[in-house]
Amino acid sequence: MTAGVFPSQALSRAIEDEWVSSGDYRIRPEAIQPASIDLRLGDFAWALRCSFLPDVDSTVEEKIEGLAFQKVDLRDGAVLERDRPYLVPLIEELALPEDVRAKANPKSSTGRLDVFTRVITDRHHRFDEIRPGYRGKLYLEIVPRSFAIQVRTGLSLNQLRLVRGDVRLRDEEIRGLQDEFPLLYLDSHALRQSELSVADGLFLSVDLSGPSDRTVGYRAKKNSLPVDLSRIRAYRWTDYWDPVYPEPGGRIVLEPEIFYLLLSAEGVCIPPQIAAEMMAYDPTAGELRTHYAGFFDPGFGYDPIGGRHGSRAALEVRARDVSFMVEHRQPVCKLGLERMEAPAERLYGADLGSNYQGQVTMLSKHFEEQTAGAPVTAEA
Question: Quick check: helix, strand or coil at residue 312?
Fold first, then answer.
């Protein structure tokens, strides 16, 4: 068997073979992304007094005894409070072969709303990593951080990908790939190998350029009304976000424990035979966490005829403990590149209804569009 991340066509076969199943609920074709499957919330959530992980001798539901204090019905929709952990049994279940493992990550819109999610499985003490041969239920921990959220049964907040073997590209492979299929662009020009910052992955930097009235990011407001995650382009962004402007010299100061949305300086291009995972936290790069939503499907920013020079990546950033200064073109996060088992037949983009291809703003799809870099008027 070929090592790699399963592409869309292999995921369809995995569903047919019931490696991924959903009981009475059908897994619709639109749930199959280029290299991932959307997972859906089940009928209820447990409100928890704390997060947890099961040990190798316990199931999730055995461990939850004494931690859950309320059962919330999601069938008609329910509001999940800020900073409260919830646990939701997902509709999908797994019956994996012994040589196939799975990984989960939040969807892009989930991370951009500062909703912290991670998958838990029975008898396994790691989040989001599902051991080879796992058979059983999937549970999603949900912690809304900046905004309360309204969710309902069937809504998808995270994705699952299936993996066989060692899939990570080494640094020399990343550099070689840049010449053949450019991964990073700057101002519409593919970066040269010598311009890449590579160390066990590919670094991205932040865009804080421009005059003092240019919007370079957004800072989450506290105490906003809940966001209904089923509503698209329904909310005024100014009710939930403050614009962020650069200081002289192209820098901003992140205040501790406040959530920011920024944008990469580089355009990212993921070709059909590659997927990419954003590393969530690197303590050597400063006391900040970047990127909850850590996966780029094949086709992100890609154009086979060369008309597009990548799509910029949204950076979800929170400083820890102390205020932290970030400057224009400072590396703030890192991409780990993964080889596909075969090139994906379905690619990220308009044909799949993808929301962030060619993005120029970092706000999620729930808000009215606002172009990054545009001055913000009092009427906005």
Answer: strand
Tokens of 154: 């069937």
Distance CA 117, CA 138 (A): 13
Say how many CA atoms lie within 13 Å of 235 toward its Cβ.
22
How far, CA to CA in Å, does 125 sit from each of 19, 129, 164, 211, 322? Answer: 22, 9, 20, 48, 30
CB-CB contact of 222 with 146 (8 Å): yes
Nearest to 314 by CA among 365, 272, 246, 273: 365
pLDDT in tens, the chain (380 residues): 789 999 999 999 999 999 999 988 899 999 999 999 999 999 999 999 999 999 888 999 999 988 999 999 999 999 999 999 999 999 999 999 999 999 999 998 999 999 999 999 999 999 999 999 999 999 999 999 999 999 999 999 999 999 999 999 999 999 999 988 899 999 889 999 999 999 989 999 999 999 999 999 999 998 899 999 999 999 999 999 999 999 999 999 999 999 999 999 999 999 999 999 987 655 555 556 665 657 899 999 888 776 678 899 999 998 888 999 999 999 888 899 999 999 999 887 645 555 555 555 789 999 986 554 443 332 22
d(CA 20, CA 3): 19
Q: Whole-prediction pTM value?
A: 0.91
Nearest-5° Cα angle at 57, 52 to 61: 50
Beta strands 251-254 and 324-327 are antiparallel
